DNA sequence: AACACTATTGGCGATGTGTCAATAACATGC
DNA sequence: GCATGTTATTGACACATCGCCAATAGTGTT
């Protein structure tokens, strides 16, 4: 029995990448720590040693999956509201289509929604996205809880629409773009003022 | 050891009601078949005998939770689009607030989304709701797949917004109503025409 | 080459699940 | 009331998965 010894960081990274692949392709319950260990060529105990419990490992996976390159969000869109809406929607669609499988797997709660900690991680990512949307439409300064809630709702719409596009395949990117930008403009003009 | 013998229908119903209560208050993984059996005053094997596997039981629970009284959907809203939107939104908010705990638990906050069969059950319920929305806005006759997809997205928005309202408590019913009806009007006028 | 450090292993105990033959309620007939 | 058949119900067995930890063995150092 030939074992190989790695630096903790390297081993941890390797196991994590295997876990990301598995949790991204199968729901939570269908992935056993034994599967992760076998695919990583490692004893099962080592998975627990590095990540604690199975749910802890899954939380790490979801965190990575939802970590989005915040690039290009720096350059705030210019112009009137419709142009800004177009920009932020394009950015969102680019990001979500590039990381489609993992990102949708995570937001769809790839296996265990309802768990408090998992929900918290997802909610955090949604909150970040919502903050980006708010900044893009020029309402990012000290938003009220209600306004943030409305924006989270819009992010929910975006997620669902992306699923109809990328997973069900019943919508084209063009249709998705029109839907999301018109909805955003309407919500900003009519609903958001109720929450300031 | 005194056992009591019930008619299969009655016993099944009793176990199911216990399961609904438990799955409605705790996530899937935190409810064991032992819990269900104990609360029902029954041997664990009997749960499997009536419902098969644990996931089968959960599917039954979700089905019941998502079964919504289709009442008052018969009386299609009259008037122009804004009035119709107001009506359908009011109806939706009434239903969802009346069955808030169980309904929100099922739609994604409380169960095990990600599993194929569970997703299918939820998708079916969303599809029914989407069909109702389409009829309410007068586009219910033979809708295209794209149009149905867009409407499912809108239902997703409604679900997320209801969560912000009922679970997070950051929105008032009035705010939710305005948000959902303006979004619906905008989508029907601008996005839906792209899908006919 | 001997040593120390620690990454890594393998097995133990606990928990949860599905299955199935054995059991005992309850209804029916005498 | 008593025997009998039907079947709802039980209890236990086999199996899988998980968390934990003492024992083991790579790997760099002296």
SSE layout and pairings?
2 copies of one chain form a homodimer.
Chain A: H1 8-25, H2 33-40, H3 44-51, H4 54-66, H5 81-98, H6 100-107, H7 116-136, H8 145-168, H9 173-191
Helix pairs in contact in A: 1-2, 1-4, 1-6, 2-3, 4-7, 5-6, 5-9, 7-8, 8-9
Chain A binds a DNA duplex (30 and 30 nucleotides) through residues 1, 3-8, 11, 32-34, 42-46, 48-49, 52-54.
What does this structure look like?
Chain A is mostly helical. Chain A contains 9 helices and no strands. The first copy, chain A, has helices spanning 8-25, 33-40, 44-51, 54-66, 81-98, 100-107, 116-136, 145-168, 173-191. In chain A, helix 2 packs across helix 3 (44-51) and helix 5 crosses helix 6 (100-107). The termini of chain A are far apart. The model of chain A has no long low-confidence stretch (mean pLDDT 90). Chains A and B meet through helix 8 and helix 9 of A and helix 6, helix 8 and helix 9 of B. The structure holds a DNA duplex (30 and 30 nucleotides).
